[in-house]
Amino acid sequence: MAALIKALAKSIGPKLAIGLALGGGAWAAMHVLERPADRAAAAASDPQVETAAAPVSAPASTSAPAPASAAPAKPAERRSDQPMAIDPRALTVKRVLAIDGPFRHGDYVWDEKGAPASGPVIITIDLKAETLSVFRAGYEIGAAVILYGATDKPSPLGAFPITQKDADHVSNLYDAPMPYAQRLTSDGVFIHGSDVEYGRGTHGCIGVPTAFAKKLFGVTKLGDIVVITNGKMLNVGKAQVGA
């Protein structure tokens, strides 16, 4: 999939911003990631998805509806080179968290106060800013500094649905624990709990602090979208900052 989002002004804090509700972005400086609390001065340009068209609705079925008890269909798995399209009409930011001071490896915040108790969840990841954000119904409820894929095992770019959740997953390739794992690709890319330390990397997965991974695991469901970019940002100029 082509690049997802226009870059925002450098004045906004270090967050990926794409998806149902997204934050700003900043460059990592050494092992400290600066994240100003006030990002209201972000650029006023509208967010865009460069190539992804809105999904076409399927025609109404003439067959009988499925029973209410029927389980939802499992989302189709995608390889790292098969990202999905994003509907640009869904890219709306309503609130970003106010986080004072620098964001260091191992740091995270989680604050659901003032956010809707239910609604679509989208996770956004900016490899350049080394941050992950989680949004519910347009409200940011969590953010963390991440680990990502090393040069020989890069993390994929694009949008991917969560297709598997396993709180006690163990890698069958590296025999390593991956707590609160959430699968993004059929070729083994997950978000999972890690010891997030400066200078470390992964084999393509997105590592977050394990305590944060547990909270994230608790608010997602199969089919929720994770969007990974490398510095592509979305306007948050009209988003509320804080509760």
From TrEMBL:
Pathway in which this enzyme or protein is active: Cell wall biogenesis; peptidoglycan biosynthesis
Biased composition (Low complexity): 41-74
Domain annotation L,D-TPase catalytic: ranges: 121-229
Keywords: Cell shape, Cell wall biogenesis/degradation, Peptidoglycan synthesis, Transferase
Entry annotation: catalytic residues: H192 (proton donor/acceptor), C205 (nucleophile)
Pfam families: YkuD
Region (Disordered) location: 41-85
Family label: Belongs to the YkuD family.
Name recorded for this polypeptide: L,D-transpeptidase family protein
Lineage, uppermost ranks: Bacteria, Pseudomonadati, Pseudomonadota, Alphaproteobacteria, Sphingomonadales
